[in-house]
Amino acid sequence: MAAQYLLPSDCDAKLVALLAYWRSITPADACLPGRQHFDPAKIPQLLSALWLLDVFHAPLRLRYRLISAAHVEVTGTDRTGMWYDEAHPAWQSSPLYAGLVEAAEGRPAFHRGTPTIHVDKDFLLLETLLLPMARDGRTVDIILAGTVYLRPPAAS
Asked: Which residue, of 19, 33, 88, 110, is most buried by count of CB atoms within 10 Å of its CB?
């Protein structure tokens, strides 16, 4: 499963590196890596893009477990500990919704688009990679996410 997922060829290098790291921590005998395999110290160059969601099933509910300081700075809000549906009441109509469901079901997902939450207006585009993690290798309990905010090219 992990080896089959491909990102767009023009995806940000941080997200390419995050996918490579996620693949590298997937145990040979498991479908998915778990939080116990994840070591932030191994990817310090990616920490500014990371956020984690706890996943609860039946019904699907997500809670922010961790949000990088850089992400908080861009959005202007620290949502750590908040339920996703309370932080984003219209999340089911968001362009990211399908990707969150895919990741909660055990499949990586990628989203590129305009920010749907308040961000600094200098950002025109974002890319988000959602990677499922499962303590038991199968039942997703955490989504490891990376978001990169892209600014327009500088005028010459």
From this structure: 33
